[in-house]
Each structure stands twice: as structure tokens, then as C-alpha cells.
Amino acid sequence: MIRDLRKRYGGRAVVDGLDLDVEAGEVVGLIGANGAGKTTTVECIQGLRRPDSGTLRVLGYDPTTQADQLRPLIGSQLQDSALPDRLRVHEAVELFATSRARSGDELLERFGLTSRRASAFGSLSGGERQRLFLVLALLNRPQLVFLDELTQGLDPAARRNVWAAVAQLRDEGATVLLVTHELDEAEALCDRVVAMRDGRVLDAGPPADLVDRHAKWATVRFSWSAADSTLDELRSLTGVRSVARVDERIEVRGDRRIIAYVGADLVRRGAVPDDLTVEVPDLEAALLGLLDKEGVAA
Amino acid sequence: MSTAVGRLVRAELKLMVRDPLVLTFVFAFPIVTMLIIGGSFGTAPDPDFAGARPSHWYVASYLTVVIAATGLIMLPVHLASYRERGVLRRFQASGFPRFSFAIAQLVVGLMVTAVASGMLLIVAAPVYGVPDMALPGRALLGIVVGAVAFVSGGVLLGSLLPSARSAQAVGLLLFFPSFLLGSGGPPPQVMGSALRHVADVLPLTVVTKSIRDPWLGLGTATTSLVIVAVLAVAATVVAARRAAL
């Protein structure tokens, strides 16, 4: 739970009156452009930075004054934090394993690192390093897991791999705070997303709700050699904002209701096209404008 | 060893013996230079060496080369690289107790110093002989407080320098003058007065004196020992605070 968190660096407010609640068992995504204040917020929650003001309660502790009690309960896959190059994978697991730790070998197996057990950290690929950080974050049975930009710089296959691991975590009931500026990642993994800009929360909710709120539009495209007067009739359908002929295809834009109305109209006319496609916005399209510095809502 | 300090010491010791910089400067350099310098001035008692045999003078001096290499090169570079790469932040975020890392560095620094010193004496024994300690209690105390002072100083240096590269540069710049003037170079009796004044204020000179004098029976070196002890306590207190997670 965060109330009115504030942090300034050299006169610039990085976190500016932020409120945030995360329930047990939730996977919450903190999303926003670079510089929105996501990482600073997460560092304050972990007690790695001292906020200028605000109230923080994490698992019943104040991270500013009770970091020693809090940190053993959280798992953190840190951004921009490496391990010594010559440390081997199994040695890293042994180094970070407290008396509460689960089996390191089992976690290495789960994240596909068993064959790299004896490899030095310096020889791991980017994806392998991120997966090792996940292993270390989960090793000591944390009640709360922080994942900060966990797929940054990974190739698509490695990304999918890491995503599957987080989905598994979610299914096991872990509470996860995921920091990302990749909206597809937030949409794929999070129960709820919190959109940040300039250190404030712009909006929060399940990804589908955010899409509904910020992008209720749809576009329907299909081939149809109708006369222009027929197109005018489509324009009068409920919810339609525009109808245009693009090359050989008709493009109808409007709110979500047009999907049903345009379909019904085409059926009524006996002109059912075999190439009709519907485009609805994803979280990225919905929040792209919202998250921009200029803040032009989509 | 499942305490945080135990886990850190175990991992750090493995990393130290895999580090070429450590193997070169802490283990190989003191032995190689001791073999060369120790044989350069003969084995007959010499007034330039306060009446001691030059070979014994150098054997008794060279433990501080190990101490200096550990404190001025190994630990600063190691710590600065940890901070630069965010390793310390990871320890902090992972719930390692506040002073566990500082304590582990102290333990590892002293263990590496002890092993490297042991190797130095094992190599010296058949070549130049290891002189008997005239005042063993004082000489051993000098070794211990000298090692603590430089190990803590190294942790402190590493916590102040911004990167591994700068730590390496600063460390080498501090190490070689200390080595040449304060331990493994010419004896103070043959230095010019200016050089001797510089040598006298180097911390390593004081540590070397507090070990060599009681070892070879050249004096009790009480003043040196007190200075080194004060340095050791001060450096340890400041280093522990600076390297706290």
C-alpha cells in the first residue's frame, strides 16, 4: 500500500504523489514510458531508496525503517544489477539461498538452466541471465516478487520463455509487481495494470478495462463492390464514425457496436464477404497516447 | 555455513582465487620480487640493513607486500567493480544483513593475506631461510594489526572509488611507491633524506617497521605498533560503515 509517495532528484519530481495498492495473489503491472518513475517507486517499496515523503506499508512493514525485516520476505529481479562474471550458476544459487530457500536445482530445472549449472555468470546469454535472476528472486519463497524490465533486451523466443515462467508464478498464487514499458508484456501477464506518467498514476485497472476506457473503437474491413449510395447507408448505422473505400476494400470505423451492426447489415443484404476482418485496440494502442510525454489520449 | 557471512566468504574466496589480478599481485608478485631482491644484497650482516642479514631483512619485510597488494589492489578493485555492476544492490535487495558484506570482506582479505604470506615463507625457507622471531608476540601482533589496517583500508578505498578501472589505477599508484619505499625496496639507511622523509610517513613503512623490528630484534617498534593499531581500528570502523548494505 502506498499513499502520496514523493521523491525528487535535483529539483525534478520523479515520483509525485503516487497511490498504489496491491492485493495478495495479484500480478500488477507498473507501466509507463522511461522516466515515468516506475523503477524509483519500486526501489522505494523495497527500501532501496528513501522517499521524500509519503506512507508505505509492504507486507505490514515500513520499508524505510524496517527494511531488515521486509527484505527477507521479498524477491527481486533487479534492473541493471549483475553478478560477478566468474561466479558459477550453482554457486550463485548457494550464495543467495537462506535457510528458508526451496530447492535451487528444481528452480534451475524449471527455468531451463540445469545444463548451465556449472557455467560462469559471464558466459551466460542475456536470456539465461534474466532467468537466473528469476531463480534468485524466487529462491527464498518470497511473499512478494518484484520484476523490473525482465525481458529488456531479450530475443522473442527468450521473452516467451520468461513470460511462461511468470505465468506459472501467477498460477501458483504469488503476488507480483511487474515493472515494464512493454505493454504487450503487461497485457499478457497482469491481472491489473497501473499506468504511470511523470510520477503519477494516470489510470489503473484490468487490461481489458483500460482498453475499454481509453480505446472503445473498432475497425471493420471487407471486400464489397457496392455503390457509393449503399456506403452512405452504412454511415447511418449506430456507432459508425466513418466509412471509406481503401483500394478494393471497405473500411468502417466507429465504436465497438459497429462490429455487430455492420455484420447484421451485410447479412440482411445477402452480401456476406469472405474476407471480413475486425481490428480492436490492444493495451498498447489504448495507452500509447496516454503514456506519451505529451499525454494525448488515444 | 549457511549464515549470510558464511555464504559470502565461501563464494568470495572462490572468486578471489579465480581472479588473475589477485593471483598476480597477491600471490605471485611478492614471491617473485622477494626472491630477486632477497638475493641481491647477500646474506652477511650489513650495517645498511641495521646490522641484519639483507636476505632476512627482506623475508621479514615481504609479508607487508602481500598485505599491501591485498589492501591496495585486490579489495579496492573487487569492491568498486561490485558497486559498479550493481552486485552490492542485489545483496542489499536480497536481504543480506547490513554488515554481512563488510565482515565477509574483512574475513576474506585476512584469509587471503594469511595464505599468501604462508606461501611466501614456504618459498623463502629453503632459499634464504626464515629468521627466528626475536619478539614473536610483538611481531605477530604487528602482522595481525597491519593486515587488519590494510584490509579495512582496502574495503574503504573500494567503497570510495567509482569504478573498477579507477580503483585499479589508484590502487597501483598507491601500491608501487608503498612497495618500493615502505617494504620491498632499498633499506631506509641508503635513501636520501627527502626520500626517507616520504618513506617515513607511508602507512606501509610503519606496518613494515612494526613487524620487521621485533621479528629481527632491531627494536620493539612500540610507536609504530600503536600507530598501526589506531589506523586499524579507525579504518575498520569507517570501512564497516561505508561497506554496509
Could you characterize what this model shows?
- The complex is a heterodimer of chains A (298) and B (245).
- In chain A, 33% of the residues lie in helices and 26% in strands.
- Chain A is α/β, with parallel strands linked by helices.
- Chain A has two domains: 2-212, P-loop containing nucleotide triphosphate hydrolases (Rossmann fold); 216-280, YebC, transcriptional regulation domain (Alpha-Beta Plaits, 2-Layer Sandwich).
- In chain A, the strands form three sheets. Chain A has a six-stranded mixed sheet, with helices on both faces. In chain A, strands 11-12-10-13 form a four-stranded antiparallel sheet, covered by helices on one side.
- In chain A, strand 8 and strand 9 (200-205) form a beta hairpin.
- In chain A, helix 8 crosses helix 11 (283-291).
- The longest helix of chain A is centred in the middle third of the chain and has 16 residues, at 156-171.
- Chain B has 245 residues and is an all-alpha fold.
- Chain B has one domain (4-242).
- In chain B, 76% of the residues lie in helices and 0% in strands.
- Chain B contains eleven helices and no strands.
- Chain B has helices at 4-18, 20-38, 54-61, 63-84, 87-93, 100-127, 136-160, 164-182, 193-201, 203-216, 222-242.
- In chain B, helix 2 packs antiparallel against helix 4, helix 2 (20-38) packs parallel to helix 6 (100-127) and helix 4 (63-84) packs parallel to helix 7 (136-160).
- The radius of gyration of chain B is 18 Å and the shape is elongated.
- The relative contact order of chain B is 0.16.
- The A-B interface holds A 46, 48, 68, 71-74, 76, 78, 80-84, 86-87, 91, 94-99, 136, 140 and B 2, 4, 7-8, 10-11, 14-15, 18-19, 81-82, 85-87, 89-90, 92-95, 97-98.
